[in-house]
Amino acid sequence: MSSKDILIVEDEPAIREMIAFSLPAEEFTLREAADAGEAEARLCERLPDLILLDWMLPGTSGMEFARRLRRDEYSRHVPIIMLTARAEEDDRITGLEAGADDYVTKPFSPRELIARIHAVLRRASPDRDSDRIESGGLTLDIAGHRLLYGQRQIDLGPTEFRLLRHFMSHPDRVYSRGQLLDAVWGRGAYVEERTVDVHILRLRKALATVNRDGLVQTVRGAGYRFSAQTD
Ligand code: CA
Fold first, then answer.
1. What is the pTM of this model?
2. In terms of DSSP H, where are the helices of the chain?
3. How many A from CA of 230 to the centre of ligand 1?
4. What is the pLDDT of residues 189-226, one digit of tens each?
5. Does residue 114 sit in the same domain as residue 136?
6. In angstroms, what is the span from residue 187 Cα to ligand 1's centroid?
7. Residue 122 Cα to ligand 1 middle (Å)
8. Cα dist from 35 to 71, 169, 174, 180, whole Å
9. 3-class SS at 132?
10. What would you report as the CA-atom Rg of the chain, rounded to the nearest whole angstrom?
11. Cα of 20 from ligand 1 centre, angstroms
C-alpha cells in the first residue's frame, strides 16, 4: 500500500505535533499548514489524499476554507475531516454542509483520528481508493504504475499515465485544457494549454498500439473526454 498524503491545516502547533506524532509514518505522509494561505500553497504543490481542517483558524475560518475547496474544480473531491472544539449539533451540521466528509471533536485520541481517516479514505472517490481502474479493455494498475491491455503492457510516460488516470477515474466527462492542467499538472504549474494537446497526442499514440486510441475523444470547442462508448 502506498503512503497517503495528509495535509493538516491547524494554527495550534501543539495539535499539529500531536497529529504528526500519532500518524504512523509508514502509512501517512504529513504536510502542515498554519492557516488557509499556507494551505493553498501546499495544495498547489500537489493534491493531498485527505485534509484535516481545523474549524477555528485565524483569518479565513475552516468552514469558509472548506467551502472554497468544494467550489474549486481542482480540490472539490479531496476528502476533508474537520477538527472542531464544538460538539454542538448545529456546528457539526454546518461543517458537513460546508463540504466536510466527517469531523472529530477536540480533544480526540490518536486512535479515533486514525479510524476516522481510514473510514473517510475508504469512502473517498474510487480514483483515490482503488488500485486498479478498468475501462474500454484497459486496466490501469495504479499501485504498479502500469497500463495493461489484456496481458500486454503499454508503455506510457509519467504525464500520460496521470492524464489517463484522471480520465479513467472520471469517464464520459468532458474536460477543458485548463481543467486538465489543474487536475493533472497541479494548479501551481506554469504550463501552456498547448502542452495538454501534446500529451493527449502521446497518450493516443500509446493507445493506438493496441487500437484503443478512440477512447480519448476530442469534443470540439470544449476539450477532451475518455469514453468506452463509441457514438
Ligand atoms: Ca485553531
1. 0.57
2. 13-22, 36-45, 62-71, 89-97, 110-123, 126-129, 158-169, 177-180, 193-208
3. 51
4. 778 888 999 999 999 999 999 999 999 999 999 999 99
5. no
6. 27
7. 27
8. 19, 31, 34, 27
9. strand
10. 19
11. 16
- 67 C-alpha to center of ligand 1: Å? 17
Facing residues of 147 across strands? Answer: 140, 154
Decide if 231 is inside a domain. Answer: no
pLDDT in tens, 102-121: 888 888 899 999 999 988 88
C-alpha of residue 107 to centroid of ligand 1, in Å: 12
The pLDDT value recorded for residue 176 is: 93
> Which of 124, 152, 181 is the C-terminal boundary of a domain?
124
Range of the structural domain that residue 99 is part of: 4-124
Q: Do 72 and 139 fall into the same domain? A: no
Give the Å distance between the CA of 35 and the centre of ligand 1: 9
Q: How far is the CA of 37 from the centre of ligand 1 (A)?
A: 14
Domain limit, last residue, from 74, 89, 124:
124
- Quote the number of domains for the chain: 2
The C-alpha atoms of residue 102 and residue 111 are separated, in whole angstroms, by 15
**Angle in degrees, CA 108, 113, 118, rounded to 5:** 165
Q: How far is the CA of 48 from the centre of ligand 1 (A)?
A: 20
**Residue 125 confidence (pLDDT):** 54
Instruction: Please calculate the CA angle 69-70-72 and round it to the nearest 5 degrees.
Output: 70
Average pLDDT of span 41-61: 93
First vs last Cα of the chain: how many Å apart? 38
CA distance 158 to 48: 18
